UniProtKB/TrEMBL annotation:
Annotated keywords: Cell outer membrane, Membrane, Signal
PROSITE patterns (alphabetical): PROKAR_LIPOPROTEIN (PS51257)
Every RagB/SusD domain range: 322-506
Intracellular or extracellular location(s): Cell outer membrane
Record Pfam families: SusD-like_3, SusD_RagB
Name this polypeptide is given: RagB/SusD domain protein
Sequence similarity: Belongs to the SusD family.
Domain called SusD-like N-terminal: residue spans: 87-223
């Protein structure tokens, strides 16, 4: 897919009218002629590939957006306090409405959306046969749902645009759509995608959506909304059809974080594909997560910036017998030709995240421009979604235990050597205790994979995880009435007052 990005830049730039990207009175951009942009189904596919490409940029999955998700959780903290204040504000729950991380990623999500709207328009305008046009529109609608699912969780009520913007003047009248309506539209897009996408993409690549991808995200959306029966139904459908889609757990947990990965890794349901040592305009293909999480001062090629580093308690409370801890942390490193423990790290004397920096593949000396395929959704998560939803619907049950224990069984494979930890979960837990166990299993299994903040938010855990006696990363500044949402960018409200009011507390 990656090679298509550069040739799609012109088209996606043409259709990506951003909210608030300029004062439209001062910088008119003219009217687009959408009928001239799409002449064949290949042009529609180009717009779709452009949308995928915008996700694999520095401002989204390459650094800015995913860093914000990490810093917002109780699993990742600021390491080097010399990092720009915008990151510290996100981490410390003292953001204002001009936070530059938000300013960076907000417009790019709308570029993604604009590209998908253009693709859908193009397919409709061309009058393509159903079996040609609908799969293309289904892929575009999946990407649109993916973008809005992130935006609505981070911001709540947001502008919802599902049409091709050909007149920039119309941007001035756009207002916010209630979050509940956004979720309804996300579900509609995913249901269409589930109906019309193929079971597998060519060469089984996981960086393009399939029926299984759409169903997996339906399960995640329903889980987020607390519609547990529907979440269970969708997750169970994916599990029951795993062989048709080619899904399974990788035998060795480390394989998931060892670049370059196969483009059709069986555990990946949807991934964001970066190509080593390649970059383009607008931060295209610029993956900076290895240096952001890597150890400052390490010997090349393992030297990072110590920006996003877990608090020490995240490390010390994780059982040393768990292979996932070994894979997830760097607690010693070569510095000056000598292997030293984290207590002798040059900058931040804490164990660092290893999932991205340890095996960055073809990359520069800091791990930048990596070969990683970042799993936005993997099969282990579907098993845990099914378990959580099943317990919510039916209480503790053998099926849910089986899903959890599949994940734990894989964790017992320590690089080919079978161990006895973590043990299978036994029957007998009460419902609340089992839900807590599943949430903690998600915390460990999906550690540092941009999921934890969403779990904290959907389960209303902020007071507990940031202020409770067992907090891994205490933040007394956390305010539940404010901090479950981030502020809309100030510049957006200045350009378009229809987006008011600002989110509470900002």
């Amino acid at each position: 897919m990656k090679h298509l990005f550069n040739r799609s830049i012109f088209l996606t730039a043409a259709v990506a009218l951003l909210l608030g990207c300029a004062d439209l009175d001062e910088k008119p951009v003219g009217l687009l002629a959408p009928e001239s942009l799409f002449r064949t189904s290949k042009d529609v596919e180009t717009a779709i590939m452009g949308a995928y490409g915008w996700i694999a940029t520095e401002r989204l999955y390459g650094r800015q957006f995913v860093s914000a998700l990490m810093l917002r959780s109780d699993m990742e903290d600021i390491g080097d306090r010399g990092t720009p204040a915008e990151r510290q504000q996100v981490n410390d729950f003292n953001m204002d409405d001009n936070n530059n991380m938000v300013n960076q990623f907000w417009p790019v999500w709308y570029q993604v959306i604009s590209s998908t709207n253009a693709a859908i328009f193009g397919a409709q305008q061309l009058g393509l046969p159903e079996n040609t046009g609908n799969p293309l529109m289904a892929e575009a609608r999946f990407i649109r749902a993916f973008a809005y699912f992130h935006l609505v969780q981070v911001f709540g009520d947001i502008p919802y645009i599902d049409y091709f913007i050909s007149n920039p003047e119309s941007v001035k009248s756009i207002s916010k759509t209630p979050a509940a309506t956004v979720y309804t539209n996300i579900i509609a897009d995913l249901e269409f995608a589930k109906q019309w996408l193929p079971d597998k993409q060519p060469a089984e690549v996981r960086s393009r959506a399939t029926k299984g991808t759409a169903a997996s995200y339906l399960a995640s959306v329903y889980l987020t909304m607390g519609q547990y029966q529907k979440a269970y139904t969708e997750a169970k459908w994916v599990i029951d059809n795993k062989d048709k889609f080619g899904y399974a757990l990788e035998a060795d947990f480390q394989t998931l974080f060892k670049a370059p990965q196969a483009p059709n890794m069986k555990e990946h349901i949807f991934d964001i594909d970066f190509l080593g040592l390649k970059s383009g305009d607008g931060g295209a293909n610029d993956d900076i997560m290895a240096p952001m999480t890597g150890v400052r001062g390490g010997d090349a090629p393992r030297s990072g910036w110590s920006v996003i580093v877990p608090s020490l308690k995240v490390y010390t409370t994780w059982d040393n017998r768990d292979y996932r801890k070994e894979v997830s942390f760097e607690d010693s490193l070569l510095i000056g030709g000598k292997l030293v423990p984290y207590t002798e790290f040059t900058n931040t004397k804490r164990p660092h995240i290893a999932k991205y920096a340890r095996f960055a593949g073809n990359s520069n000396s800091e791990g930048r421009y990596s070969d990683h395929n970042y799993a936005a959704m993997r099969y282990a998560e579907i098993l845990l979604i099914a378990a959580e939803a099943s317990v919510e619907v039916n209480g503790p049950n053998a099926e849910a235990l089986g899903y959890i224990n599949q994940v734990r069984a894989r964790a017992r494979n320590w690089a080919g050597k079978q161990t006895t930890f973590p043990e299978d979960v036994k029957a007998g837990l009460a419902k609340d205790a089992m839900i807590d166990l599943i949430l903690d299993e998600r915390r460990l299994e999906l550690a540092f994979e941009y999921k934890r903040w969403y779990d904290i938010k959907r389960r209303n855990l902020g007071e507990k995880v940031f202020k409770g006696p067992n907090s891994l990363e205490p933040h007394e500044t956390f305010n539940a009435s404010r901090d479950y949402l981030m502020p809309l960018p100030r510049v957006e409200l200045q350009v378009n007052p229809n987006l008011a009011p600002q989110n509470p507390g900002y």
